[in-house]
Amino acid sequence: MKTKAPNKPRGGVPAAGPEEPVSPATTSATGATPPGQSSAAANESTDLAPVVGGNLRRLRTRRGLSLERLAQISGVSRAMLGQIELGQSAPTINVLWKIARALEVTFSALISARTQAGALVLRSNESKILTSKDRSFSSRALFPFDEPRRVEFYELRLAAGATEDADAHPPGTAENLVVTAGTLEIDVAGDTHRLETGDSILFEADTPHAYRNPGRVEAVMYLVMTYAEEIG
Predict the structure, then answer these.
(1) Rounded alpha-carbon distances, angstroms, from residue 65 to 14, 50, 96, 114, 187
(2) What confidence tens digit (pLDDT) does each residue in 20-37 have?
(3) 110-133, pLDDT tens digit by residue?
């Protein structure tokens, strides 16, 4: 798992482009059927709107911030924040990143729901899937959020011809990414690296970077984010 922020986010996936309005609450964060998933399965997806709303309200009040103050430091309007807290809107990736930066929490802290102890099966039709505004980029969390960790695991999908910009992550953050379908170009530290299906890359993600799909088919990637400090 785009990025030009006053405070650097502490975890998660790349953010989307310029600020965009929140989308109406749907059965998944995308509001669309993920690739390879039936409409019936999509209708059973976890509704992130109430989860994000509850987490936002808890984290905001814990820091003693009013909606107006959070709006000022995050760049997200007070009205939008209010809608999110009430579970009336499911925010896009970009909006979540802005809020996470302002609250100085991990991306996953906003979308996490408590899970049971012991073995945990993450069902595909219950996935937390977030997209960019134009839905050319999607991110699916492949890990639970209820325990401290230094590693996060994501499935990323990037449409043909699309580009996803990512802000710098905290110092010491590393991204280990493998392409399982399609072709991907990654711009990092002034260099461009082209990856074909089966290729992988490991790089320090504490500088702005970008993912670009120069091919004619969707690119599918799996990303392991490793942080210098334990989060969560």
Answers:
(1) 26, 20, 17, 24, 37
(2) 333 333 323 333 333 443
(3) 877 654 445 667 788 877 788 888
Burial of 147 (0-12, 13-18, 19+ CB in 10 A): exposed
Instruction: Give residue 153's domain range.
Output: 148-231
Name the DSSP letter for residue 72: H
Are 162 and 83 found together in one domain?
no
In a domain, 85, yes or no: yes
pLDDT tens digit string along 38-62? 343 333 334 678 888 888 988 888 8
What value does the mean pLDDT of the chain take? 77
Residues 223, 154, single domain; the answer is: yes
Half-sphere exposure of 19 (CA within 13 A, CB side): 10
Which CATH number do you get for residue 62?
1.10.260.40
Position 178 in a domain: yes
Residue carrying structure tokens 């990414």: 177
Distance CA(131)–CA(126), nearest Å, equals: 16
pTM (two decimals): 0.54
**% pLDDT > 70, the chain:** 73
Q: What are phi and psi of 211, to 5 degrees?
A: -115, 130
Rg (CA), the chain: 17
Q: Is 143 exposed, middle or buried (0-12, 13-18, 19+ CB in 10 A)?
A: middle
How, if at all, do strands 89-90 and 129-131 pair? unpaired
**Quick one: pLDDT at residue 114?**
53
Residue 217's domain is classified under what CATH number? Answer: 2.60.120.10
